[in-house]
# Entry
Amino acid sequence: MDLSTTYMGLALRSPLVPSAGPYAEKVESLQALEDAGAGAVVLHSLFEEQIRAEERELVMRTEAGADSFAEALSYFPEPSEYRLGTEQYLHHITTLKRALHIPVIASLNGVTPGGWTSYAKKMESAGADALELNIYFMAADPAEGSAQVESRYLEIVRAVKAQVKIPVAVKLSSQFTSIANMARRLDEAGADGLVLFNRFYQPDFDLETLEVTPNLVLSTSWESRFAMRWIGVLCGKVKAGLAATGGVHTHEDAVKLIMSGADIVQICSAILTHGPKRLAEIEKAMREWMAAHEYESVKQMKGSMSQRNVADPASYARANYMKVLTSYR
Amino acid sequence: MSERKMVTIDGNEAAASTAHRINEVCAIYPITPSSNMGEWADQWSAEGRVNIWGTVPSVVELQSEGGASGAVHGALTTGALTTTFTASQGLLLMIPNMFKIAGELTSTVFHVTARSVATHALSIFGDHSDVMAARPTGFAMLASNSVQEVHDCAVIAQAASLASRVPFLHFFDGFRTSHEVQKIEELADEDLRAMMDEEHIRAHRERALSPDRPMLRGTAQNPDVFFQARERLSPYYAACPGHVQAAMDKFAKITGRQYHLFDYEGAPDAERVIILMGSGGETAHETVEYLNARGEKVGVLKVRLYRPFDAAALLRALPATVKRIAVLDRHKEPGASGEPLYQDVVTSLAEARVSGNWPFAVEPRVIGGRYGLSSKEFNSAMVKGVFDELARELPKNHFTIGINDDVSHTSLPYAPEFSTEPDNVVRALFYGLGSDGTVGANKNSIKIIGEDTPNWAQGYFVYDSKKAGAVTVSHLRFGPKPIRSTYLINQASFIACHQWVFHERYDMLANAMPGAIFLVNAVYGPGELWDHLPRETQQQLIDKKMKLYTIDAFEVGRQTGMGVRINTIMQTCFFAISGVLPRDEAIAAIKYAVKKTYGNKGEEVVRQNFSAIDQTLANLHEVKVPERVTSTLTRPPLVPAEAPEFVQNVIAPILGGRGDSLPVSAFPVDGTFPTATAQWEKRNIALEIPVWDPEICIQCGKCSLVCPHASIRPKIYDPKLLEKAPPTFKHTAYKGKEYPGMSLTYQVAPEDCTGCGLCVDVCPARSKSEVKHKAINMEEQSPLRVAERANYAFFLGLADMDRGQVRIDQVKGSQLLRPLFEYSGACAGCGETPYVKLLTQLFGDRAIIANATGCSSIYGANLPTTPYAVNADGRGPAWSNSLFEDNAEFGFGFRLTIDKHHEYAVELLHRLAGKIGDDLVTALVTADQKTESGIAQQRDRVVTLRKRLEGMTGWETNHLASLADYLVKKSVWIVGGDGWAYDIGYGGLDHVIASGRNVNLLVLDTEVYSNTGGQASKSTPRGAVAKFAASGKPLAKKDLALQAMSYGSVYVARVAMGARDQQTLTAFLEADAYEGPSIIIAYSHCIAHGIDMTTGMQNQKAAVDSGYWVLMRYNPESAMRGENPLKLDSPAPKISLKDYAYRETRYKMLTKSKPEEAARLLVLAQEDVRSRWQFYEQMAKLHYGKVDGAEAAGTAEKAE
# Structure
C-alpha cells in the first residue's frame, strides 16, 4: 500500500499530518507523532502579536520603576542575552530538524504585512522545510471593505514569498464572499499551498465575572465536509497544493478529503483528545479500508471525487442544496 | 600589551570590574550605595565571565554583612583570594571580623562606598563616618577620589595587601563617586596580571588552613602573652606604606598613571594648603588650578593611604613654604578634640617638630573643619571659602563649610556665585520623571559622547525621596579635558524640562548661565507656549537672554508607540540643539546606542525608538523669547497657608528643593519630627483618578481597603450636614441597617491619588447595562482637580465615626476607621502600604511601631514628610526605625517599657488608692480593654485619674502622673520586609517570638529586597529571577510561618489581601487580641515582581488560587481549648503554579534567559506547592485532644 503524497513539492510518506497544535511545542510529542506515522509536522504558530507584545512587555516590566529612586535604580538583573519566544521558536525548529526525519512545517500567525514577516526568513534559515501562514483575521472594522480584507491577505503572501525560497502555504478562513476566486488570487500571488480552513475560536462570557473569555471547542467530523466541498471545487483549478484541516477524526474523514483532492489531511482535535497513537490508528484503518476497496495508493485516490471528476459537478454547487432539502421529505 | 578601551562607567562598576577579575570568591550582601558592585560581580559570574586566571569567581549572598564578613574570613583563612563590597551599617557589622582578619595578617581588599552611619537619622548618602568607625580594626585604608582612581586603586590595594599581608579597605565616596558616570581607561587583563605577584598569591595560599599541614588559629590568650603577641605584627604595618608606594610605582610603569601616598597639587611655593581625602579632592584640585592661574599661591594635598598613616610621607608631600593648613574631614565625631584626619595631621606636625625633623620655614597654623556630610554639596565656592578663611589673621578652627550653623556658629562664609567651571565644558541639566526614562537616556548620551568622541564625559543623577512619581535631575558635563567637577552643575548651558508639572514646583532656571538654552516638553504649540509659562520663568528667560525650544514629546510618543517613555525623543532634541555633536552624527549615534540597549530585547522596541528619533526633529521648534513678561501665572506656594509653622518653615523649603538653605537651628536637636505632614504635600502626580458612581456602588469598602495611599475613603454622616456641601459633592443613602437614615460618601483625594487604579480593579460592582462601567472609574485628573479638592476638604471636615460604633471586624466597617497612614511616597499600586494603612485604621490611636529599614521605613519616614498621621484627638501611631537587623528586638524593647510602666503604674495606683479612691483604682486596674469602647472608657478613667492627681503631691503622685497613659492598652507593632524577617533580622525575630511577650510582627513579604533594588532573600521563591539569583532562585522559599508555629505559643497568620480581604482583617484583629507574640506574613505584590501594578491584587489572588500562598491562621488559644490551632483559609490549589507565576516577569524572565532551567525549576516549584499543601492539609486535620488536669485525673479514675 503506497500512502505517499506530494504537498507543495515536498514528498511525504503519508497524507496524515498533525496540524498546528499545542503538542508541537514538545520534541517528544512530535517524535511520538513521527513514530505514529505522520507524513510531516506543522508547528504551533508563532504569533505576530506575541512577537511584538513579548518584546514590549519585557522592556516595560523590567524598566518599570527603574532610575527613580537612589537605592533601587533597577529591579532586575540584566542578562546580556535573551532567548525571546521568537528565538526559542527558531531554536525549536533547529532541534526538531535534528530529531525528526519527516519535513517540518513552521507556522506564522499574523494579520498585517509588517516587519514580523522577516521571521519567515529566520524560520527558513533555522531549517524549516515549508511555512504555513495562518492569517487569523477577524474583519470586525466596519470601515474595512471586503476588497481591503482580501488585499491584506495577498500582501502578506507576497511579502512572505519575497523573503523565502521554501514553499509557503496559506491557512485561510472560509469567510470570503468568493472562496474560489480568493483561492485563485492567492495562487497567483505565489502561495504554494492552501490550507482549508481556519477555525475561529468563538468568545464566551463568564456570567459570574462578566468577562469575555476565550473558549476552545474541539471539532467534530461533520466540520470536515466544509473543507471537502471547497477542496473538491479547487482541485485541478489552482497550482497550489491543497491541505484539509478541521474535523478530521476518522479514516473515513481522511479518505473523503483525499478523494476530494487534498494532498494532505491535517489532524488536531483527535490527537489532542486521544494522543499521538490516534494517528497510527487512523492510518491502520485507512490502510484496511483501502485494501478492502482495492485502492493501491493515495495518489490514485487523490481528487478522484473532485468536482471535475464526479459524474454530476453540480452536486458541489447549488444543486447539492436542493438535493439536501428534498431529501428531507 | 593589548590596547586599552575607553569606557563610560560609574564608580561601582569600575571597582567591580577590577575586583571580579582578581578574586576567586566574593561574599556579598546588598546595601546602598555598594549593592551594584555585588550585582555586577554576581551577574558576570552568572554569565560565566572568568577572572584573569581563567576561572569564574564564586559569588555568594549571605544573610547579612556580618555573615558576609564571616564567610570572607573563612574563605581567606582557607586560602582563596576573597573580597566583599559594603557600606555604612554594613561595614559596621563587619568590624568584628575585620579585627580578626587584620590581627591574623590576612590579605584581602574590602571595597567600600563610604556612606553616612545612621545617627539622628538614616542617610544613604556619602561621607566617611563608616570608614572612620573602622579605623581601629587594623585594616589599611586607601581612598579613591574619582571613577578612574577607583578602577586603578582596586588593584593597587590588592597588590599591596598581598605584598604587605595587611588587609585593605579601599573606599570611595558613596553616590558622588560610586554613582558618578565618567569616561575612564579600562585596565586590560594583562595590566592586572602584571600587577599581581604570583609569588605573593602562592604565599597567601600556603598560609591557609589545611589538614595536610595542620595548624591552629584563633587561640585564646591570657594576660601573660596577649600584649606581646599583639605587638608582633607591628613591623608589617611599618612596612605597609612602602608596599603601597611600590605598587603605585609599578602601576605607573604599566599604565602611566602615577599615584602617591599623598598627592600634592598646586603651587610649589604655596602658603595655604587644604588637606582632604575622597571626591572633594578633585573639586579642590580644580579650584586650586583656577586660583593659581589667577595669581594665588595655594595647594591641595590629597590623602590616598590613610592607614597606616605615613607621617613622614605627609611632611615630604607638603611644600616647605606652607603657612596655613586646613584639614577637611567628611565626618563628625562629636566630643572629640577634632575630627580624625585633622588629628592625624596635627599629631604628625607636632611629632615632627619635637623630633627636629622639620621642613617648614615657619610653623604652619592648622585648622580643621567638617564638610560634605551625607553627600552635602561641596563645590569650588566652598573650597574658595576655606582658602579665604586661611588667609584671615585668625582663621576659625573646628569650622563647618557648606551649611549655615547659626547655633554653634562654626560655619565659614563663602560666595556661592564663585565658579570654576571652564567655558569649554557643556553643562546640561535635565528635569525628568523616573518613569519617563530621562536618566537612562542621559546615561546613553554619556556613552555616546564618551565612547564615540574624543570628549570627556561625566554624569551624576539626583533622585527623589519618593518612589511614586519620582523626579530625577541629571547633571551632565562634556568637555575636551578630564572633568574634575565633583559637584552639581550651578552654571548650566542647557536645561531641559521633561514634565510640565515641574514649572509650578521648581525654579529650574536658577542654575542657568546667561545665554543658556531651555528645552520644554509641552502640549502647547510654539505659538502658545510663552503664555503658559509662569512669570518667574519668563523673567529669567528674559534676564538671562536665554533661548527657548519646545516639543510635544508625548504626541511623538503616542504616534510612535513609545507612550510616556519620552527618553529617546528628548535625547534627540538635546543633541539637535546643544551642538555637542554634528546633528547627523548625533542621530546615527543615538540609533546605535538604542540598538545596543534594546537589541537583545527584540527588533520591535528598536524599531519604535528609531521611528521616534526620526519624528522628533520635525516636532522641535524654537520659540522667540519676547522682551516682556506677560504671563498671568505665578508659581503657587508649595504648602497652603494654613499649614503649621514647622511645615511652612522647614518642610516647605525641602519640598521646593531648597533644603540646603535651611540653617542648623531649623532642626530638632535629637532627630524627632512631627507626624501628619504628608497631607501638606499635594503632589498631583496622577494623570487619571477614580470617580465614584453612587448609583452603582454596593458600599463594600474594598476600594478603600486596597488603596495604597489612603486616597479613597468612605464616611457615614448625618444628611443634614450636606447643606454646606460643595455643589459637586456626591453622596447616597447608606444601605446597611446599622445606621438608618445616614448618608454615605466615597471621596477621592484628587491631589494625593497616584492613579494606580487598584481600587477600580478590585471594585466588584458593575453597571447592569454596561459591564465596563464600575462603581469607580478612572477619569482624567486635571479637569476634576479643583472641584474634587473642594469636595475632599469638605469630606475631611465631616466628623469621623465613633470607633465604638463601627463593626471593625468586617471589611466594610473597618474602612470607616480613619487611616492614620496617608499619601505615602510608596510606588503607585504598592502592595505593602494597604496592610500598613489597615494597621493604623484598626490600632493606630494606640500603636507604637518599630520599623525595620527598608521600603516601609523609607516611605514611612524619608523626609520631607511622613504619612503617619493623627486623628481628631491628636492620637496616632508613634514610629521609629532603629536598624535593619535589630527591628524585632527594638520593638521588643518597646514592649518591655510598656509592660514595666504599666506594672509600675498599677503598683502606684494601689499605693495611692487611699487618695485616688478605691473605685477608680479598681476600675482602672481591672478594665476590660478588648473592645474599642472599653479602651475609650479607660481613656476617660485616666482623664479622671489625672484630675485627681492634680490635687495631690509627692513623688509617687508625680511618677503616676507621668505613667498614667500606660494604663491604656498599647499595641506594639514590629513592621518590616522579608529581608529583615527572613534574613538579617531572623535571629532576633526568632528570639522575640519565643519570648511570650505581647508583640505583633507584620512581615510585608515582597519575596525580595525591594528597597535596594530586588536582591534575592530567603523568601524569594524557587524559579524566580532576582539580583543575586540571576539564574533563578534554585531552592524553595523558607516557610517562616511553619517555623513560627513550631513554638506552639505564637499566633501565626499568612494573608493576602487581594485573595481574601476578610481573612486579612480577621488575622490583624486576632493578632492584636492575642496576649502573646503574633506574626502576620503578608503577601505584598511589588514593582520588583515585574507586574502590572494596577492588577496587583489579582496576582495575590492567583498566588492563593495556585496553592503557592496558603492562607492560614494558627491560634494557640484554640489549642488550649482542645481544638486544632491551625485553620486553612484557602482551598486546595485551583490553578497550576504556572498560571500564577508566568503572570510575573520575575518568573517569566527566566524562560527567556534560560528556558531549560526555567522549565526544570517550574516542575520543582510545582512539586513544592503540592507537597506543602498536603502537609498543611494534614496538619490542619490533626486531632488535638485536650490534655489538662481534669482529663488527666479522669484517666487516673478509670484506671482505678
In short: Chain A is about 40% helix and 15% strand. Residues 146-163 of chain A form the longest helix (18 residues). The first strand of chain A starts at residue 5 and ends at 7.
